[in-house]
Specification:
The protein is an all-alpha fold and 310 residues long. 72% of the residues lie in helices and 0% in strands.
Length: 310
């Protein structure tokens, strides 16, 4: 960090946060916040059902053709002319619908291919190297604060560090985790770990940009990257904000911030498929045996690191 900056950081941060904080206090537990949550969920489901980009345009087209057919039938007494006109309308409508369906499937396929490339890229040798470069860095901080005891009640559910926002005490724990990570990173500024972190954040930034522009299948990427994006954003949030503040611009990793907040606000995280929730063949004896060989094996791991075995 540039120690020669003479700005009053505390005063500037107070000015930056004041307006947003007032808005938060005004909205918390109020109707407009609940309505916003409902709208976010509705947008997610509409996107999943392809209502906006597929069914609604086709419904409008079909409805228009139907209304025109009714008007033609009422405006002329010549039955042959009515039948011919309606048949022509049906033929044109069918042709247009077929064309639009084909275009939609082609566009959707192209988005899937682009999304699949991101998944493949995440498993590439280069990115794996950077992921390994920050794995120990993250574990050194995260494992101090995450639960170490196996919780059977949450075993069939997937969680992110955003769950720490559920209570004031957990929020304080998350803030402490983020502060410790920030200090650790700047104590080892320009280290290989920080360079690897920047590469990972840049990669997630690219995903966020393509999701924002709608050139990828957001739901395909969400199913794979949700926990990776949310956890990495929460762990390194203060680092991201510090970089933004030093540069004097919110654009630094802005699309990553956009992606994390968008997926959080939808409140529809990917679910574990029901077929995966099966009775365990793993026994207490197996767990004790592994713990004897490698103590600490059954501690809760970071979801983004678990993706290595995905």
């Amino acid at each position: 960090m540039n120690r020669t900056i003479s700005r009053d950081f505390s005063k500037e941060l107070e000015d930056i946060n004041l307006g947003g904080y007032r808005h938060f206090v005004k909205s918390e537990h109020s109707f407009d916040l609940a309505a916003s949550d409902l709208l976010q969920r509705a947008r997610y489901h509409f996107r999943m059902w392809h209502l906006f980009d597929r069914f609604i345009p086709l419904l409008v087209l079909f409805g228009t053709a139907f209304v025109i057919s009714i008007l033609i039938s009422q405006s002329t007494q010549n039955k042959d002319q009515v039948v011919t006109s309606i048949a022509a309308i049906i033929a044109v409508t069918t042709t247009v619908i077929t064309f639009l369906e084909g275009e939609h499937k082609n566009r959707h396929y192209q988005k899937l291919v682009r999304s699949s490339d991101y998944v493949k890229g995440w498993q590439s040798e280069c990115i794996l190297k950077h992921r390994e470069g920050i794995k120990e860095l993250k574990n050194s901080i995260v494992n101090k604060h995450k639960l170490k005891i196996f919780d059977s009640r949450s075993f069939n559910e997937a969680h992110t560090l955003a769950d720490f926002k559920s209570t004031p005490g957990k929020i304080a724990t998350l803030a402490k985790l983020q502060s410790e990570m920030l200090l650790l990173l700047f104590n080892y500024e320009n280290s290989e770990s920080q360079k690897s972190l920047n590469e990972i954040l840049n990669y997630l930034e690219s995903i966020g940009q393509d999701v924002k522009l709608g050139v990828v299948d957001a739901d395909y990427l969400k199913d794979y990257f949700y926990y990776i994006v949310i956890d990495n954003y929460q762990i390194f949030r203060k680092y991201i904000e510090c970089k933004q503040y030093i540069s004097g611009s919110r654009v630094v990793w802005c699309n990553l911030v956009f992606l994390a907040h968008t997926w959080e606000k939808e409140k529809v995280p990917p679910r574990i498929p029901s077929i995966c929730i099966r009775p365990l063949v793993l026994t207490d004896s197996d767990i004790d045996s592994v713990e004897t060989i490698k103590p600490g094996t059954f501690q809760v791991e970071d979801a983004s690191d678990a993706a290595l075995t995905k």
